[in-house]
Amino acid sequence: MMEAGTDPRRWKALAVLGIAYLMVVLDVSIVNVALPSIQTDLGFDVENLQWVVSGYALTFGGFLLLGGRMGDLLGRRMFFMIGLGLFFVTSLWAGLANSDTMLIVARLAQGAAGAILAPSVFSIITVTFREGAERNKALGILGGIAGSGAAIGVLLGGVLTSYISWEWIFFVNLPISAIALALVPRYVRESRAEGLARNFDAAGAVTVTASLMALVYGLTQSTNNGWTSGKTIGALVASAILMAIFLFIETRSSSPLVPLGIFRRRTLTGANVVGFLLGTMIFGIFFMLSLYMQQVLGFSAMQTGVGYLAVALTAVVAATVSQALVTRAGVKPILTIGMTLLGFAMIYFTQVSVDGSYWADLLPGFLLMGVGIGFSFVPISIAALAGVQGPEAGLASGLINTSQQIGGALGLAILATVATTRSDNLVADGQSVPQALTSGFSLAFWVAAGFAVVSLVTTLVVIQRKELEQVDPHAEEAQPVPAVA
Distance between CA 164 and CA 162 in Å, rounded? Predict the structure, then answer.
């Protein structure tokens, strides 16, 4: 095996990896802007529209750890190419969708493709670049792609939806994945972990993902059928049974998807709880605000995309600043500031009104949220590695990504259920649709503010400075999959 840092093609390989990673980032940020157009064209109910976002996040998060392990053992380049190929096919599938069911299934498949693709990017970097400054530079470049990609995504989503059609938010992935696929054999060398047992906990990945999907389905069914309906209760019971089976599998498996013993580390556990709650807020808030801007304020998709630039660009700048501040002040103080600012942003959004404006009702909250995101993602990525040494670093890094994605899917389901139930009740009582929608969004934002309070308390009580001092200086900072916009 070639030693890391000696391949003369490594910087060209990074360019190929960066192209693919940009596609993953775009797919997170580009969709929300197009949601109202998708809803109108495919006839989505409000309670089912959230599956366009949460379906992707569920399969992405559910299969992320499995995808990373299989790539490490069977071949990182091979799995990277498989992920690219599947992303091409599923993006084409999503763009050609002519019904709500077809698009949801395509997004579920696309999330699974992302779970194969994303971890391969970082594992290839680990074996391609020498540990230390060179590898950190490569990771920093990917971080820059993540930040700028989020901003590009919201703007590109607005342009494509307004001037062509929403289908092109998926078709745009086709040339990107095709170019990357053509260049991979030329510049990226194959590698795999040697000397490890080739055991995969596929059963664990399937059961936990199925459990979470049943939970989200149960939450959405409660809107139309009530909490006591057979569909709602059946889905929630199925979710609980599947989760119990998952935990049983993890305690018996020789190579568990999630070794439960890792949660004995208090700060690591706290970081994942905060990461989970961070996902619940960000995914849900952007979903709600996209609908608010277009369905209540009458924004076009283009105006919505431009409006989101404030939070995307602020988050990039704040993340850069927080990296320097964490070195001086430590992880916990910066994370505390970040979660506090996010809480204030959630509370600010509760005041949205039917006749609101971007400058008064949204921009101040976007700026608060952008700084909060930037001041949260960097320290939480470091805290996720607290007390972790050597081989467990990859697991810990993947775990925080999984927590954020699953938190995003469940949080979105909860907030969408709260908002839709409130809006439907008000419409039934005779309120206008814009008034009812706004009231529903406001209530959902209060729930999101509650998530922020819980995350702040977790930061203060569970995350410990002493354990943060034990972060392996040779382990790369965990790289969270962006969830901005």
Answer: 6
Using CA atoms, how far residue 281 sits from 216, 353, 412, in Å, is: 16, 20, 8
Would you tell me the crossing angle of helices 301-329 and 363-383 to the nearest 10 degrees? Answer: 40
DSSP code at position 261: G
> Is the distance from CB of 20 to CB of 176 less than 8 angstroms?
yes
Element (H, E) at 412: helix 392-428
Q: Give the whole-angstrom CA distance, residue 89 versus residue 110.
A: 8
Domains 1-190 and 259-485 share a fold: yes
- Per DSSP, the three-state class of 342 is helix
Calpha distance 211→234 (Å, rounded): 12
What CATH code is assigned to 259-485? Answer: 1.20.1250.20
Q: Domain residue spans in the chain?
A: 1-190, 201-254, 259-485
Token look-up 């996209």 returns 290
How many residues would you count in the chain? Answer: 485
Distance, in Å, from the CA atom of 429 to the CA atom of 419, rounded to the nearest integer, reads 16
User: For 292-362, where are the alpha helices, taking DSSP H only?
Assistant: 301-329, 331-349
Q: How many CB atoms lie within 10 A of CB 244?
A: 12
Residue 357's identity, in one-letter code, is S
CA distance 262 to 77: 28
pLDDT of 133 higher than 70? yes
Tell how many helices (H) and how many strands (E) occur in the chain. Answer: 18, 0
Considering the domain 1-190 in this protein, what is its CATH number? 1.20.1250.20
Cα 219 to chain centroid, rounded? 20
Backbone angles phi, psi at 362, to 5 degrees: -120, -50
For residue range 353-392, list pLDDT tens digits in order: 999 999 999 999 999 999 999 899 888 888 887 777 656 6
Closest Cα to residue 126, out of 468, 481, 390? Answer: 390
Model's pTM, two decimal places? 0.91
Q: Determine the angle formed by the axes of helices 230-252 and 202-225, rounding to 10 degrees.
A: 160
Helix, strand, or coil (residue 104): helix
Listed residue (56, 61, 105, 28) closest to 208, CA to CA: 61
- Please provide the distance, in angstroms rounded to a whole number, between the alpha carbons at the two ends of the chain: 40
Measured CA to CA in angstroms, residue 19 lies from 10, 30, 110, 134, 400 at distances of 14, 16, 17, 19, 23
Would you give the DSSP letter of residue 229? S
For residue 26, is pLDDT > 60?
A: yes
Q: In whole angstroms, give the CA distance from residue 227 to residue 359.
A: 39
